[in-house]
Amino acid sequence: MNNQNPGFKRILLKLSGESLAGKDKTGISPEILKYFVAEVEKAYELGVQIGIVIGGGNIFRGISSGAVHMDRTTADHMGMLATVINSLALKDALVSRGLPAVVLSAVRTDGITEFYSIRKARNFLEEKHIVIVAGGTGNPYFTTDTAAVLRAIEIRADAVLKGTRVDGVYNADPEKVEDAFRFDELTYMEVVKKELKVMDTTAITLSMENNLPIIVFNFDKADNLQRIVKGDSIGTIVRR
After folding, report:
1. In this structure, which topology does domain 10-238 adopt according to CATH?
2. What are the Cα distances from residue 10, in Å, to 13, 154, 174?
3. What is the dihedral of CA 127, 128, 134, 140, to 10 degrees?
4. Which residue, of 46, 47, 71, 92, has the greatest Cβ tally within 10 A?
């Protein structure tokens, strides 16, 4: 393992399920999965402890149009199970690459995953496992963004790294507005007041209360995760 001192000792990487689908917008792309593993491996080789939360939007989202006529609790439970499917796929790809990985689920899927507990998560991280936390918070009405922040706090991560397809937080959608401005740094309150789409308000508030930095960066650009772990300034950081 590389002896270079990383900028962080422990991180929580938040990825969207939609990004795992690639151009097809649904399902799991083998090529994207392979890319995910390669990027995580680069960070892992630096000695950083890695927790991962991945959404389920490529399979089902509780707030999607397909769930409009469903009971919200049922729809959210389906979304939680979708995160389990993605987490298992990611774990399998990591293990196939020779990286130790485990899935801990906040919803019971006995015989398929281990049930999440703070103690288990911390122990696996100390044992150099990549810990993938599935099932959201285990409760409906909470997003995977909130779940990521909650788990980051529980495992005592140094920061949440939110991988997206853009290179930070903008004052408008950079894919639609040509002169959109990118922020290098924001406070939690600026995110709330400006109604910036970093994470939902619950996640931002929880981060603020626990002084947990959030870094939003372009995960689609190779080596960005590795560079952040090394301490490079990439994307937008949200903190006090």
Report:
1. Carbamate kinase (3.40.1160)
2. 10, 12, 30
3. 70
4. 46
Burial classification of residue 200, based on how many CB atoms lie within 10 Å of its CB (0-12 exposed, 13-18 middle, 19 or more buried): middle
157 token code pair = 């991560």
> Tokens 């626990």 belong to which residue?
210
In tens, the pLDDT along 5-43 reads: 457 999 999 999 999 998 877 899 999 999 999 999 999
Q: How many CA atoms lie within 13 A of 172 on its CB side?
A: 7
Give, rounded to a whole angstrom, the gap between the first and last alpha carbons of the chain: 33
Show me where the domains of the chain are located.
10-238
Rounded to whole angstroms, how far apart are CA atoms 9 and 61? 32
Confidence at residue 134, expressed as pLDDT on a 0 to 100 scale? 98
Q: Is 223 exposed, middle or buried (0-12, 13-18, 19+ CB in 10 A)?
A: middle
**93 or 72: which leads in pLDDT:** 93
The string of pLDDT tens digits covering residues 87-99 is 999 999 999 999 9
Report CA torsion sign: 62, 65, 67, 69. positive
Residue 24 token pair = 């097809």
At residue 24, the pLDDT reads: 75
